[in-house]
Amino acid sequence: MGQSQFMPSTFAGYAVDADGDGRRDIWTSLPDVFASMANYLSRIGWDRDYIWGREVTGAGKVAASKIGLDNELPLREWKRMGLRRADGGPLPVADINASLVTTDDGAGPSYLVYNNFRVIMRWNRSTYFATSVGLLSDALRSGR
């Protein structure tokens, strides 16, 4: 439903009236659309202290059995396997688990994704959707 592609039950439980007109309008009110999406993500587990994920290089060195959302490993393990940030820098030192997600059967970009990625996946179970939302949020945050 609406610009946020909510299911009816999601609308009923999470849509908000951000523009103060007395209606929860996720079709034509941008304040309601964005506030409803933020409310939904926040209430289902989004952690503001972490990002959704990051593009990485070196995924070609990782065994296929380690790739996918079902495989969570500490960030230090991914670092040990040779993964680096897309800009070539080292992965951060953080006590957080991540999963390696590849696109286009490994021919496209690869991402280490965190719990916030899983939160986006509760909204829409497509890894392409979740990655797109994450990349858009990165672009908005950086001003691109």
What does this structure look like?
The chain is α+β, with helices and mostly antiparallel strands and 144 residues long. The chain has two domains: 8-43, no CATH class; 53-142, Lysozyme, CATH 1.10.530.10. Helix content is 36%, strand content 13%. It is built from five helices and five strands, in the order ααββαβββαα. A five-stranded antiparallel β-sheet has the order 2-4-5-1-3. Helix 1 crosses helix 2 (30-43) and helix 4 packs across helix 5. The protein is elongated, with a radius of gyration of 17 Å. The mean pLDDT is 94.
Report Rg.
17 Å
Shape: elongated
- Number of separate domains: 2
- Per CATH, which architecture of the largest domain? Orthogonal Bundle
> Which structural category fits the helices and strands?
alpha+beta
Indicate the low-confidence ranges by residue numbers: none
The CATH class of the largest domain: Mainly Alpha
Q: What series of H and E elements makes up the topology?
A: HHEEHEEEHH
Looking at the structure, the CATH topology of the largest domain is Lysozyme
Number of helices: 5
Major β-sheet annotation: 5 strands, antiparallel
Number of strands: 5
Proportion of strand residues? 5-15%
Q: Kindly report the average pLDDT value.
A: 94
Q: Tell me the distance between the termini.
A: 28 Å
